[in-house]
Design brief:
The chain has about 220 residues and is α/β, with parallel strands linked by helices. The chain has six helices and six strands, in the order βαβββββααααα.
Amino acid sequence: MTSLGLKLKVAILDRTKDKVTNLFRLASVMETQLKRSYQISYQTYINFPISKFNNHNRIINSGLDGFAYKTFFSTIKKTVNVSFFMKYRIVRNPDQKMNNEHLIQIMDNIGEMKNLYGFAHNIGGSTVSLNVSYVNNIIQGLDNNTIPHELGHTFSLLHVDDQSTLRSDSRQYWTHAKQNTKDSTNIMFSGGSKYNTDLTSTTVVGDQINLLINAYRNGKLNLN
């Protein structure tokens, strides 16, 4: 069994004209929602190279005259327990965001935000904008999807049902058969999917956690 801790530091900024959002309540709800979605236990398979073993589990160095001996790969099944931790602070302008933080900014319902719940600025990035017109639904528990979904994009996750995902990262694309399973409550269905609902699209699968880990190890997170 392996324990994995996901730690997220967040700077929260209200950029609206009227500033009516209770940012402390929003932060508390965000943490609850993210724990619900990402704090999971799952099983995964890991391949690792080994030398040939004898019956006593001792390595047999069978190479001769400097020629390498044959390497075998062993597959083991591991249970991974994920813990999620969030630390936040309230900031007054975007320049106060630190390099190791995500920025969650509340925006007025105008311009590029018009009628959008919110959006991640970049895949693997560190900024999410939320439309103030819909933030109250998040605080009241009517929208459990927008925060985990948009932050999922910053964690390198793509829409599981989008054809563009099939072209850009086929590992993340789900066939129609896969979509119509117990995992149909996944956070990463696109807004146009019949499986996407504000209230119940809250789950993450182990493969998505593995993708997040790989993106982090390969330097593909917190890019901007």
